[in-house]
Amino acid sequence: MKGIAIKANNITKSYTLYNNQTDRLKDALMLGRKKIGKSFYALEDITFEVQEGESIGIIGKNGSGKSTLLKILTGVLTKSSGDFNVNGKVSALLELGAGFNPEYTGLENIYLSGTIMGYSKIEIEEKLDEIISFADIGDFINQPVKNYSSGMFVRLAFSVAINVDPDILIVDEALSVGDIRFQQKCLRKIEQLKNEKTIIFVSHDLLTLNKFCDRLIWINEGRIVDQGDPVEISKKYQAFMAGSELNVYKENGSAKEEFIQKKKSLINEIDPIHPSLQIFGDNKATITGISVFDMFNNKIDSIQIGERVLLSIIVKFNERIQNPIIGFTIKDRVGNIVTQTNSFVLNQAIDDGFNGQEITYSFEIQIPNLKKGYYTISPAVASGSQYDHTQHCWIHDALVIKINDNQEYDLEGFLVLEETKFKVL
Amino acid sequence: MSLKKRKEIKDLTKLTLEFAKRDLKSRYTGSLLGITWGFIQPTITILIFWFVFQVGFKSMPVDDFPFILWLMCAMIPWFFFSDSLNGATVSIIESSYLVKKINFKVGILPLVKICSSLFIHLFFIVFLFLMFYIYDYDFNIYNLQVLYYLFATIVLLLGFSYISASLNIFLKDVGQVVSMLLQFCFWLTPIFWSLDIIPSKYVFLIKLNPVFYITEGYRHTFIYKEWFWDKPNLTLYFWVFSIISFLIGIFIYKKLRPHFADVL
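YS: structure for the whole thing
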């Protein structure tokens, strides 16, 4: 029978925002009669349980309160109300850093962490070799930690955290800093620890979470939205994130409000260009909208490789333009141009555009065998020919699409090799 | 007291001493002489005072005692006091990496500073005995009182330290104010001047200063051969003052502790 490792009951954390530190001090000492600052809730009524030996993943967008929750569980921050129980020795890797003194060398910091965890010098020395060899940062172990790269830092911090023999291991997004090989090494180690330890894992990498966690907890704006089976929750979360990308800007001014209203009213019409995007060009023509549709005319932003889709672009002409060319570029997440095309190279002569005209152009394309991930589409309008043209308008990354490749494993590279056959001769 | 509680206290004591050792080491890391500087600096200061007053101004022996010995008796506890308080004030801010990233008993940090200054102070007490021996004064029973006054200093320091360390996190000015007050206090306390030069109607003002009780106490211990219970009023005043400031220190620390990680 396994016990309960963590039990949280209605944890709430509110921050009071003060204009200056003196007000905060007065409030803390309760010198003033009433609260001076404004309250802001980072966490509200968080209730959950973690069984011993269970691996829990916590997901949520930036600022949703994941780290705050972990900090409260580890005792770094103080909750405002509610209560919680943590049974067992906790080793935590919160954001970047794990109580390291930047002035100390790596070695001294290992001793420091060990001392704080309550180990004697001899006990630390027993673990020393393992910690150093796992961190694998060479001679840097004798350099002050402040000179470390963020990768080295997290290597050492992780190595210490898992080697102090905790009952509960808390890892907060830390691994993403390490290079791929170190990440793999850590994940292997976590897999190894998974059955004996309770693990809480915060990450934006849903693949990893799905693989390692027994359960996911999804937090949004300080509240638990849902928890349960990792695959189920991560699907819901992804769907939510795709929709919420644009809503993030809701509060910033009326132009954005208008944009959202307009977007809502045009369910299956072309989206206007998001007002946060910068539009480049000489203003003789402007791109006012762009969207991707499937062959049934449903607007989509998540596409399977091999699927045929329509890319529609609205262009508004502000004066007469002869021989216009419409084109687009697809870029990957880091800005590599994956492919591009335009009406000129497709041998499509377009009628001249006149002042005030708004015309929608559409490309029917087949999505190439790209690896899954996020890609952006940057549309452009020019005039002339491929060799000699004037750009009138272009917008970087006007549209974000998600491409799915249906592959079970995440391999390196740009393309997916489809229908590959393998045999032993 | 439960076994668990006892173990916790033992662990905390161990942690405090361990950190005090580190603190001593890290204060002078990077310097060639290392920890020796901790001893050289006060020694040089004493030598300068000795040179200026005994050699330069030809200060007469005070109450038939060589000026240097008389001076050291008050100067040495003063160094301990000001060193600890200055250190404790910044102790928590300095170790913000322990407050923000991990669950750490932050409360030991001011204590750590007091302990690390205490190491140096203990050396100077031995040094003091040595000087008296060199000047041909024998050890006597009154000397044992040094333990009592040492304890009194630590209690006084605890209160002040928790107040200044906690407030300093919210208002960085506190650090400046503390070091300024310490300067004032140094000149207002009869350390290198004798209380005799003050008109007797103002003497009570000087006696209000709790540090006076300590510096004079060290002199009683080594020079004047008086017991602390021979001055019941002053002793009572000192302890009431210390305990009240200790309680205020604990109150402020407890109230502010939950906010540390939010502010730092």
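YS: worth flagging: Chain B touches chain A through 28 residues (CB under 8 Å).
IM: good catch. Also The mean pLDDT of chain B is 86.
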